[in-house]
């Protein structure tokens, strides 16, 4: 039962949000440059609010994606990566999966709208989601701003698996070396951390400084396994459709208060 009337709760939230924003460092160097988000808990949220059709949760979560990205852009975050569809998600019921892929396609098209002026990249294997959704995603992404001039960049992880990304990176690295006539010994020497990083889906981009996961789960679930080695983690019990601006600002505030040692 909700003990605090809505007419009192909303002004309190607005006041708290204002204080959180005022508390953020005015210097961009204190903010995360790259935020990665696992948008988790859509199905559980739908069931808890009384819906047997989990697509209700997917659609509620979809409406939150662009909203959260605007929060990032507003406070000066340079890059965000959102985990929309993992390779494990592809094992879900065919009807549910078809609906989810359509919703994700619509979300990416919304993110890529010219009004946003964002640069967008897909990370993952689009061949796994079907020919028509893959075409729509490629067309949407190709229409976005040039990464060299856009003030905000978005990665959408679709058909993504962290282990597969590392396998693909090593294969790409070795294929290049073989094409250049490398010997067996040279192939072994070519496999370095730097060389693998250069062949990841996110090649050329900074690693995430902050990883946010909703729904109370405290694990990466294969998300950006290589890139998140030294990322700060922030977990919340809120399901993704319930994730609020104050939750986002608290995550950024907590990140700014941490002293990052990078394993040293």
TrEMBL record:
Active site: 40, 89
Catalytic activity: isopentenyl diphosphate + (2E)-geranyl diphosphate = (2Z,6E)-farnesyl diphosphate + diphosphate
Name of one Pfam family that matches: Prenyltransf
Binding note for cofactor: Binds 2 magnesium ions per subunit.
Enzyme nomenclature, EC number: 2.5.1.-
One record GO biological process: polyprenol biosynthetic process
Keyword flag Metal-binding: yes
Needed cofactors: Mg(2+)
Amino-acid positions noted as binding substrate in the UniProt annotation, renumbered to this chain: 41-45, 86-88, 92, 213, 219-221
GO terms, molecular function: ditrans,polycis-polyprenyl diphosphate synthase [(2E,6E)-farnesyl diphosphate specific] activity; magnesium ion binding; Z-farnesyl diphosphate synthase activity
Gene3D superfamilies on file: Decaprenyl diphosphate synthase-like
SUPFAM superfamilies for the chain: Undecaprenyl diphosphate synthase
Biological function: Catalyzes the condensation of isopentenyl diphosphate (IPP) with allylic pyrophosphates generating different type of terpenoids.
Family note: Belongs to the UPP synthase family. Z-FPP synthase subfamily.
Protein name, UniProt field: Isoprenyl transferase
Origin species: Mycolicibacterium duvalii
Taxonomy of the source species: Bacteria, Bacillati, Actinomycetota, Actinomycetes, Mycobacteriales
């Amino acid at each position: 039962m909700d003990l605090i009337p809505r007419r009192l709760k909303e002004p309190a939230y607005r006041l708290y949000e204002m204080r959180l924003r005022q508390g953020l460092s005015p210097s961009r160097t204190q903010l995360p440059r790259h935020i990665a988000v696992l948008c988790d808990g859509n199905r559980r949220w739908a069931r808890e609010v009384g819906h047997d059709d989990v697509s209700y949760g997917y659609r509620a979560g979809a409406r939150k994606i662009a909203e959260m990205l605007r929060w990032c852009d507003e406070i000066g975050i340079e890059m965000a990566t959102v985990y929309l569809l993992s390779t494990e998600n592809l094992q879900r019921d065919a009807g549910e999966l078809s609906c989810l892929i359509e919703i994700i396609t619509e979300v990416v098209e919304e993110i890529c709208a010219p009004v946003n002026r964002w640069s967008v990249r897909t990370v993952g294997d689009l061949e796994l989601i079907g020919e028509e959704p893959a075409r729509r995603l490629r067309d949407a992404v190709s229409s976005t701003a040039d990464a060299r001039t856009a003030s905000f960049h978005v990665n959408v992880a679709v058909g993504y698996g962290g282990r597969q990304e590392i396998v693909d990176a090593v294969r790409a690295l070795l294929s290049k070396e073989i094409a250049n006539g490398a010997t067996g010994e040279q192939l072994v020497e070519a496999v370095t951390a730097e060389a693998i990083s250069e062949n990841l889906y996110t090649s050329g981009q900074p690693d995430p400084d902050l990883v946010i996961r909703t729904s109370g789960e405290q694990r990466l679930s294969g998300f950006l396994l290589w890139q998140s080695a030294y990322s700060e983690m922030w977990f919340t019990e809120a399901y993704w459709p319930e994730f609020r601006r104050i939750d986002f600002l608290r995550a950024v505030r907590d990140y700014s208060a941490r002293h990052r040692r990078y394993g040293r």
